[in-house]
Structure formats: structure tokens, C-alpha cells
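Reading group handout, session on sequence-to-structure problems. Before we discuss, look at one worked example. The prompt was deliberately terse, the way you'd type it at a terminal:

> structure Foldase

The input record follows.
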Amino acid sequence: MKRSVAILSSAVLVVALMTGCGKAEDNAQPNQNAASQTDGNKQGNEAADANDPLTQFPKLTLPYTGDAKAAFVEYQGGTVTGQEFEEFLRVINFMNPQQGTMIEAADNEALKAFAREYTATKILASRSDDAMKKEAKDLADKTFEKIKGQYMGFLGKDEAKFNKLMEGQGVTKEMVTNQMALINESITVLKKNISDDTLKQKYDQMDKASRTIASVRHILISTEQRKPEEALKIANDLEARLKKGEDFAKLAKEFTDDPGSKETGGLYENADVSQWVPEFKDAALTQKVGEVGPPVKTSFGYHIIKVENRKEKTFDEMKEELRANALEAGYDAFGKNELDKLIVKYNLPQSKNEAAKK
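And the output record:
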């Protein structure tokens, strides 16, 4: 499981809270064939509920029952109590509702992973000094205001509704900022050993493709539902039309089989070339900028490619990306080399979802 504290870290915490949450009015579907006044009233209430944005963010249903005072995890130097663990889970849900869905569906193994992760956060945070703690708390306060602003935008700038939402989710500002500060402290502890010199060494060791971004237009003629020779003929015809001056974006919208770039006229803008399949990547790296190249065959079919611009990112442009990668690697190393040796015992309650697996 990817580390949720990385998801929650200050580096990415202008969270897309509303992802997957459509407009409430779009979700109301009253039945026009109600058989009785009772049914009509019921449907009216359901429609009213659907139009209340607060219903988009229900309280997290914990997948277990446990004693708030019990030690859910025992580790060298401390414990994680049931109350701490619950607060951690509720704050995750508040900050990222998609994570909340994962929590509600958690089985025993997933609960243990969440508990292990929170224990790691506590242990790392305990190694922070006073300056780190202050920085972490200040950042937590600022981040809370960003999250509040996102919710407020969704709730029509109604602070009373935001307060009601927090109450409904079982969280307080203090609870949220305390958990965020703990996460920030753990991240700061990991970051202190990541110097710019170390990052520069990583940058210098990267190959050119890993440092290059390009804006590329392409038209894919897929071989999934046509013979390769048929696809190649179409691609050659399109190449000829483009070289005669026809508009690339217009032809891409009409002919491409790539849904990811169809509406942008075949354009992938400022993309990391290393993410593409080898043949496409090679064309993006070597094809002359501004010219339409001959069809390039990949496992998807034939591509007509035009590189609109290409540049190699500088160290300064990549530094924070490299730092984030080093941070993740540092956390992984802590987990492999220290964490499981420091955890003495798990006393987690059984997940209610375990029975559903059998």
C-alpha cells in the first residue's frame, strides 16, 4: 500500500477533495411514476438529501469496533491507542475522501498496514527537534486553511455548513492540524538527510530521456481492429496530407484512435518522454522539432508524430521531484531496516470485512 502520509504531505496537499463528487443536483433522479403520496414524499426527501452537499461527505464508518483506551500497537518507546488510530483514520477521510473509501473496505491486512504506517509516523515524528515541530505546526495550520477553502468553495462559502460537515465527520480543527503536524514532522525528519548535493548526484546519473520533456502531437491508427497493412496505409495517407499543409489538430480529432489526446488535437504537452513506449519515446527524443515524421510502429499501432518542442529539464527544475523520490526511498528504507524491529506487538481488533471474504 502506498504511504498515505505521502499522499497527505504538504508537498501535495492542495488536495483534489472534490474528485469523484459530482454536482449534487445531477444526482437527484426523482421517479415520475410514483404510485402513492407516501412514495412521492419519500422521493422528495431523497431528492432534498441529494441536493444537500453535506451528504457528499458522510462520516467515516470504521470497519472495526475497539476500545479507545486500548493499545492497538505496542512499539519500543510508546503505543498507538485506539483513540489515536481512530483520529488518524478520520483525519485521512476528511483530507482525502477517496482514502476513506479504502478505510471502510479494509480487511485485517489493510488495517494492519494503516496501523503500521501511523506507527511509523509517530516514531519518525518523535525524532524531530523543536524547530522542526514549529515548522510542522505552522505548515499544518496553513494547509488546514487551504483544505477549508476547498470545502467552502463546494459548500457555497457557507462557514456554518463547513462547521457542520466537520462535526458530522467527527473531526475538529485541532484534531486535523495535530495529525497533519505529526505527518509533517515525520517528513521533515526524513528530509534532513536529503541534501542538494545528494540530489545533484542523482540528477547527473540520470539518462537524457529521464530528464527530457516534450510537447508531441500524434495520430494513432490502431491495429487492434484492423490489419497492420491497412493501418499503415491510412497512416501513410495522413502523413502525406500533413506534409501538404493540412491541420494536424483537425486530422487528429477526426482520425486518431487515442482517446487520451483526441480532444486536444493529438497533443501531449510538456510530458516526460520516459513514460512512453520505447518506439514512441525514441521518436520524441530524436525526431526534428516541427516536422512530421514517417509512421512509427508500436504495440498500439502506427503513430504519425510531430514534436512541437523538446527540452532537457535543469537540476533546479527537477530538484523537488528528485527530493520527493528520495523521501519515498527514505521511508521505504526506514520500513525495511528499522520499523518492524521497533514494533513489539499488534493488538488490532478484527475487521468486520473479514467475514465478507469467506
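Points for discussion. First: Strands lie at 71-75, 78-81, 212-222, 267-272, 296-298, 301-312, 343-346. Second: Residues 221 and 302 are 5 Å apart (CA to CA).
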